Amino acid sequence: MNFASEKKTRQIKVGHKVHEIRVQRDLFGRLLPLAMEDNIDVEKTLSYPITSVPMSLCHADGTLHQTPKSAMVGVLTSNSINDEVPRRFDAVIFDGFFLLHTMKDIPKTFGNISKKIMSILTATHARRVDVVFDQYFSPSIKEYERAQRHEVRNREYFITGPEQVRPVDFIKELLNLNYKECYIYSAHNNSVTYAYDNLSCQNHEEADTKIIFHICQMDNDVSDVLIKTSDTDILIVMLGNMDHLRNNNLKIYMEYGTMHSKKWINISELQITLGPLLCQSLPGFHALTGCDFNPYFLRRGEKKPYKLLEKNILYQKAFAALGTDEFVCRMYGMNCDDVNDARYHKFLATYKTSGTKVFKKTRISYDSSNLPPCQRELRQQLLRTVYITHIWRNSHLKEPTVLTPEGNGWNLIDENYTGELNNEESDDDEELITDVSDYDENK
Q: Annotated region Disordered: where (predicted)?
């Protein structure tokens, strides 16, 4: 048996290209004899992508590695969940679709659904209640996430009055993007118009950032506010914008989950515990290490990288502005500042022998997804991180960013932003990868 007989072949489409993915059992095992016999520069080889897609960031078919969204909340709030909260709040902000998805015993008509929603809102006894929904831009970098949730643009759906009967499967209908569009018109002097109020944020796509915008605009007449949501990204984005509050005395709390899994977080106290610099670095950190728009680094998680961030002021400053290669190297346990060097040192750690000791592979196989991405692969991740962080850190503004996804990690293909990562290859890369993947150690 040789390595060639163990190759698994699979065709995938990444962008406009169809790639044949050969999943090798021991990639390093192929590189080593090739380097020894043909005098290949392994250090240079590992500075290039060696698979069609970056295996540390995505699956063989190009889809992204994703981590549970609640993981980061557990890391941040290990000692502060279920803090004491006020019995009543001046203001309560609902994530709109969280509200709809958690409704029980949904009435048959839209008029009665509206009444049920009003009963939920008034039960808060708050002086102010905001219900905030996502918007749906097209094209959008959220298309990949929506595809994972099986959201589609089905037939047009119109609500014409209170007696209209809702769809039988109301929750399934919420997956129809057209169902989530709302238009408010007013007629005056034979013309139809609509107006925006001062809390309108037409350039915010996600409810997350719109909620932060609402909170940052609150004046001194509001002393405490509760966020009700299931989206734990809101915690990170809110912590990253605590320095943008108009009302510096505002106390912010968050309730997430339902029924027995319901939890409360005192965000204001958590910000004091973590410190302003660490909080400002969190949006960039979360965007780099894994969120809805960016993959996480396989087997790195967020707990260990967060400990690195928590203990190092330099990294906090970098992420407050943005992340660095050095941080990614530390995530992989490598004491260097260049990800290409980190890849090479991983190779040496696997196969290097000491003194005159006869060479013997120290590990039979090595999964290439354990390698950090090379600089070319990391560049796309960092470009996306810049774009996402720019939106999150500027959520207090009506227009959070002037950047566009094109040129910042996404490509516009067939009027959609592609979510997959890929390694664009030069002719030199193609020849190098072919040599390595076709090598037979028994020849």
A: 421-443
